[in-house]
């Protein structure tokens, strides 16, 4: 495959990872809100709003997703770069076969 196609595929993988992490954190935030709301209704904790909980978890999801996606895309692009350099040598002398 061409390096540009592979780089594009790594970018798509990075976007998918970013979306996955954001979804994970948002779903955790929804569960956290439900738990805190139930505790508040039972008088075992302070009242919370969904906006407060979801703002915090969405921010955390964006940060975590961005870090993971950037790391994955960087590693993928580095792999492509290293693989494209693999055929080159410092001393490009043609190899000849010795037949005796």
Describe this structure in words.
The chain is an all-alpha fold. It has a domain at 9-20 and 45-75. Helices cover 75% and strands 0% of the residues. It has 2 helices and no strands. Helix 1 packs antiparallel against helix 2 (50-85). The longest helix has 39 residues, at 3-41. The relative contact order is 0.16.
Radius of gyration over C-alpha positions, nearest whole angstrom: 25 Å
Look at the helices and sheets and give the structural class.
mainly alpha
Number of strands: 0
Poorly predicted parts? none
Average pLDDT, to the nearest integer?
89
Tell me the span between the first and last alpha carbons. Answer: 39 Å
**Tally of helical runs:** 2
Strand residue percentage: under 5%
Q: What series of H and E elements makes up the topology?
A: HH
Shape: rod-shaped
Helical amount = over 70%
Profile the largest sheet.
none
Task: Draw up the topology in text.
Layout: H1 3-41, H2 50-85
Helix pairs in contact: 1-2
Concise overview:
The protein is mainly α and 100 residues long. It has helices at residues 3-41, 50-85.
């Amino acid at each position: 495959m061409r390096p540009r196609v592979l780089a594009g595929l790594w970018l798509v993988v990075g976007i998918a990872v970013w979306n996955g992490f954001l979804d994970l954190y948002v779903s955790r935030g929804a569960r956290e809100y439900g738990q805190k709301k139930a505790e508040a209704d039972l008088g075992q904790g302070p009242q919370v709003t969904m906006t407060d909980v979801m703002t915090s978890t969405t921010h955390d999801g964006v940060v975590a997703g961005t870090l993971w996606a950037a790391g994955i895309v960087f590693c993928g692009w580095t792999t492509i770069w290293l693989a494209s350099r693999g055929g080159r040598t410092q001393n490009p002398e043609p190899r000849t076969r010795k037949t005796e």
